[in-house]
């Protein structure tokens, strides 16, 4: 049975169809908004213009389908999963679908952000509509040819079947279809009839990746391109005091053949050389003096300031239900705990880099960026040039994790190229990458709960964060709605250390804090920790509070399922289990971590994970995202730590900054809740849950509650061994 | 007080700085005569002089393993060794593993297990896995976990990479 679509995407202007000069048909569409109705479609795919449509489907005369997929790929698999959705509704065999990165060096791309686990969530409906509309037009063309009612025709794997045994392939009717009106209303498939969605589909770039083809920004080069290595202030709060270019330059050029130019811009100095090594080596010999223009901040300062904020009264209220103070004063018991997290660098495996060639005619930019549109705007503004002159091409990205939302390195490249009047690629060394920001900010939470007559009667969450506070939806996550007296307050301290989004912003640490707190609260209340969650969720059922973000039913379901699948309640000699559950990015997740003690050290051996993300588009890709999120969550909770002394980051490469390695990575067992609800985010939501599950398992194993990340630094291992 | 290092006169220094060293390397089965600076690492030689960008730069410290290649069948961090030290060596990079259209079994296993996300560490993981198999030390999954720990995967695809190596080891034994 098909589902008739009646939503806002059903309108003629949503997509446009045209016959191609070389045969076949081209369907242009806009993923996130209806495009202008007067937009012209190109007759030749070499003229594709991504200003008006941000994606195209080409159906060739032989029935083969090419999807020009424009979305940023940072390893989250949208370059595969988004075309899967189109192909499903178009009803073609996945083997006949070819996915092509939108052609480079033509017009400016207008593409959406890869971030916030939004890609699939935002485009699910438009993509289905697009595929279904194209399918309907092909049916209409075939039905007209046979002189039958389109309603009597069906499709399968790119072939239309009509009454009386008529059969015709898509390729044979594309020319006729191109002349038809785009249907106002189309039918979408019933999810039970899905043939591609929900299957294991391999990443479309896989062959290029495993054979080492140049896909990434760091692999990009152009004739005459110079490599720029940039000397930035060694500490946050510093600025360039003086730098004698001419004296220095001759000496450096002599010592380092290959150095072409040295350029001072803003607070930075760029060395331009013919190769990366020469540029980086020469940069190290630059003689520059730095002075503090702002506070030289150290980790001890941040600790003191943030704790001071938590102790103070200078908060902004985010949500207030009932009267928490009254609940505390009337409580039988009050539990108050403080949780502390460090700054974290993103440490994408591919260090930041970007190519820029700024000429009088245009600004050509190539590289890995999660926010191409916003970045192109920033470059135009910075160089005082019209946006039309900015041509930004995206490459595959060697990881994002939030870092590539910020185009600081693109601006550097554009500015250096503009000053040097040469094509340049800015390349960060690992040291540059780890010490130049942007970081996950240090945050502290204080949670206070009131218990009366065996019930949780009050809950007060306070956040003290560097630079910015939690976004508005978070105060409406669990346990909002489940506690009568509930309050969330935030405060921040403005630092000169640059901070920003880091995979699952705020929740990446908040989930650990709250889920550790609930584990301890259950002990104080002398109740079962799982039952405590289930009971609180029960109270939210039927709530009329439309601010509440999570579904209590879906949350209960993942919790009950993880308890069953992990054998959480079964005792196992030497294996200690920790439970945690969280909702973010529209996805409900519960995890159980299993910790054993090896040589007195807690080691996470396995994490069992239950996810409700609605319909799973690409099972293989989904499993990868889930496992990656958990390994990332365990790794950073255990080891991630960036400290500062006088504004200078104290780690700068992987010998003094620990990332989780294979020997430390837990096994992951994943279970999906099967339903037909629209798909939700997967790139982030399994990460926040992991820290709490591991911390609670460590408590079970060692008796120690850990209130600070990274765990490895704050766990008293002597006590464990003793 | 520490004595300043001796510095040759300017003319000698200029002459020294442009002197290149001739070496012969067999790279992906092609023997080549290459002129390199004394300080050029194998990684920079591959990426910037020979444009074999499949081998990745991740940390230049031998810590992340993204630059792993096979030298005479042994896995090495190509960022940690100088090209001039390897005159006569045979280097295989990720670009040289497939024989025509026929992928190396470890490459095939990477497809089978979908053992990557962003894919940046993948060439290093593949070369490291082949080197590990050549070493013949890994017997158990725990051995593999230990011996593959020189290669960081920031996306956390470790469990699938582990399956790749297990599968390849089993194929090797049979």
TrEMBL record, chain A:
InterPro entries: Ald_Oxase/Xan_DH_a/b, AldOxase/xan_DH_MoCoBD1, AldOxase/xan_DH_MoCoBD2, AldOxase/xan_DH_Mopterin-bd_sf, N-heterocyclic_Hydroxylase, OxRdtase_Mopterin-bd_su_IorB, TAT_signal. One of its GO terms (molecular function) is oxidoreductase activity. Residues 211-294 form the Aldehyde oxidase/xanthine dehydrogenase a/b hammerhead domain. Keywords: Membrane, Transmembrane, Transmembrane helix. The keyword Lipoprotein does not apply. The keyword Coiled coil does not apply. The chain crosses the membrane at residues 14-32. SUPFAM superfamilies: Molybdenum cofactor-binding domain (SSF56003). PANTHER family: ALDEHYDE DEHYDROGENASE (PTHR47495). This is Isoquinoline 1-oxidoreductase subunit beta. It comes from Salinimicrobium marinum.
UniProtKB/TrEMBL annotation, chain B:
Residues 21-97 form the 2Fe-2S ferredoxin-type domain. GO terms for molecular function: 2 iron, 2 sulfur cluster binding; metal ion binding; oxidoreductase activity, acting on the aldehyde or oxo group of donors. Signal peptide: none annotated. SUPFAM superfamilies: 2Fe-2S ferredoxin-like, CO dehydrogenase ISP C-domain like. Keywords: 2Fe-2S, Iron, Iron-sulfur, Metal-binding, Oxidoreductase. PANTHER family: OXIDOREDUCTASE WITH IRON-SULFUR SUBUNIT (PTHR45331:SF2), OXIDOREDUCTASE, IRON-SULPHUR BINDING SUBUNIT-RELATED-RELATED (PTHR45331). This is (2Fe-2S)-binding protein. It comes from Salinimicrobium marinum.
């Amino acid at each position: 049975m098909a589902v008739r679509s009646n939503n806002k995407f059903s309108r003629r202007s949503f997509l446009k169809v045209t016959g191609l000069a070389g045969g076949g048909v081209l369907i242009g569409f806009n993923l996130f908004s209806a495009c202008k109705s007067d937009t012209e479609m190109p007759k030749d795919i070499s003229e594709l213009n991504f200003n008006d449509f941000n994606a195209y489907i080409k159906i060739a005369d032989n029935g083969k389908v090419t999807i020009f997929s424009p979305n940023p790929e940072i390893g989250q698999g949208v370059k595969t999963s988004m075309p899967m959705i189109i192909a499903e509704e178009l009803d073609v065999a996945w083997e006949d679908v070819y996915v092509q990165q939108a052609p480079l060096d033509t017009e400016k791309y207008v593409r959406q952000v890869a971030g916030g686990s939004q890609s699939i969530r935002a485009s699910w409906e438009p993509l289905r509509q697009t595929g279904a509309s194209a399918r309907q037009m092909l049916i209409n063309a075939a039905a007209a040819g046979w002189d039958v009612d389109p309603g009597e025709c069906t499709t399968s794997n790119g072939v239309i079947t009509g009454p009386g045994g008529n059969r015709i392939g898509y390729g044979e009717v594309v020319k006729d279809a191109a002349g038809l009106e785009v249907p106002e209303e189309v039918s979408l498939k019933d999810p039970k009839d899905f043939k591609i969605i929900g299957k294991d589909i391999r990443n479309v770039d896989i062959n290029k990746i495993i054979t080492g083809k140049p896909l990434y920004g760091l692999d990009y080069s152009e004739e005459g391109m110079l490599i720029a290595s940039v000397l930035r202030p060694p500490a946050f709060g510093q600025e360039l005091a003086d730098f004698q270019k001419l004296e220095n330059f001759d000496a450096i050029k002599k010592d380092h053949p290959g150095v072409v130019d040295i350029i001072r811009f803003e607070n930075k100095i760029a060395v331009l050389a013919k190769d990366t090594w020469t540029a980086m080596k020469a940069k190290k010999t630059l003689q520059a003096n730095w002075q503090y223009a702002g506070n030289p901040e150290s980790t001890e300062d941040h600790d003191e300031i943030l704790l001071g904020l938590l102790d103070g009264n200078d908060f902004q209220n985010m949500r207030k239900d009932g009267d928490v103070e009254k609940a505390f004063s009337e409580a039988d018991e009050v539990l108050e705990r403080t949780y502390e997290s460090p700054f974290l660098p993103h440490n994408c495996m591919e260090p930041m880099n970007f190519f820029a060639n700024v000429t009088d005619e245009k600004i050509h930019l190539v590289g890995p960026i999660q926010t191409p549109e916003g970045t192109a705007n920033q470059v135009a503004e910075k160089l005082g040039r019209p946006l039309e002159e900015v041509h930004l091409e995206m490459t595959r990205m060697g990881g994002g994790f939030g870092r590539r939302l910020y185009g600081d390195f693109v601006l550097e490249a554009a500015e250096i190229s503009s000053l040097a009047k040469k094509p340049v690629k800015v390349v960060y060394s690992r040291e540059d990458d780890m010490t130049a920001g942007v970081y996950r900010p240090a945050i502290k939470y204080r949670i206070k709960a009131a218990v009366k007559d065996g019930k949780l009667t009050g809950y007060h969450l306070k956040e003290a964060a560097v630079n910015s506070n939690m976004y508005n939806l978070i105060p409406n996550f669990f346990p909002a709605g489940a506690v009568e007296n509930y309050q969330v307050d935030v405060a921040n301290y403005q630092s000169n250390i640059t901070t920003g989004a880091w995979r699952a912003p705020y929740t990446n640490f908040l989930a650990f804090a709250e889920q550790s707190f609930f584990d301890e609260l259950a002990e104080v209340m002398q109740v079962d920790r799982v039952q405590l969650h289930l009971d609180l969720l029960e109270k939210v059922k039927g709530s009329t509070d439309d601010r509440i973000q999570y579904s209590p039913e879906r949350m209960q379901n993942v919790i009950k399922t993880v308890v069953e699948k992990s054998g959480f309640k079964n005792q196992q000699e030497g294996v200690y289990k920790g439970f945690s559950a969280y909702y973010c990015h529209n996805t409900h997740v519960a995890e159980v971590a299993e910790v054993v003690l090896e040589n007195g050290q807690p080691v996470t051996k396995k994490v069992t994970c239950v996810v409700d993300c609605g319909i799973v588009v690409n099972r293989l890709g989904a499993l990868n995202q889930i496992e990656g999120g958990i390994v990332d969550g365990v790794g950073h909770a255990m080891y991630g730590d960036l400290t500062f002394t006088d504004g200078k980051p104290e780690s700068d490469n992987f010998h003094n900054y620990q990332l989780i390695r294979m020997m430390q990575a837990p096994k992951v067992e994943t279970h999906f809740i099967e339903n037909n609800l629209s798909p939700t985010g997967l790139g982030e939501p399994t990460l926040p849950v992991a820290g709490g599950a591991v911390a609670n398992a460590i408590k079970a194993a060692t008796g120690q509650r850990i209130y600070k990340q990274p765990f490895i630094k704050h766990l008293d291992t002597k006590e464990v061994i003793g | 007080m520490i004595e300043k290092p001796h510095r040759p006169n300017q003319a000698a220094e200029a002459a020294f700085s442009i002197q290149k060293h001739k070496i012969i390397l067999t790279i992906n089965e092609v023997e080549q005569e290459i002129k390199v600076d004394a300080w050029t690492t194998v990684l920079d030689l591959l990426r910037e002089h020979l444009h074999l960008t499949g081998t990745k730069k991740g940390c230049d410290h031998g810590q992340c393993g993204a630059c792993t290649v096979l030298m005479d069948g042994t896995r090495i961090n190509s960022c940690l060794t100088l090209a001039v030290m390897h005159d006569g060596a045979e280097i295989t990079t990720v670009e040289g593993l497939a024989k025509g259209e026929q992928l190396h079994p470890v490459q095939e296993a990477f497809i089978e297990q979908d053992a990557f996300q962003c894919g940046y560490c993948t060439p290093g993981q593949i070369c490291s896995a082949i080197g590990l198999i050549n070493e013949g030390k890994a017997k158990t999954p725990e051995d593999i976990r230990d011996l593959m720990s020189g290669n960081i995967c920031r996306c956390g695809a470790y469990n699938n990479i582990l399956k790749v190596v297990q599968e390849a080891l089993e194929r090797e034994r049979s």
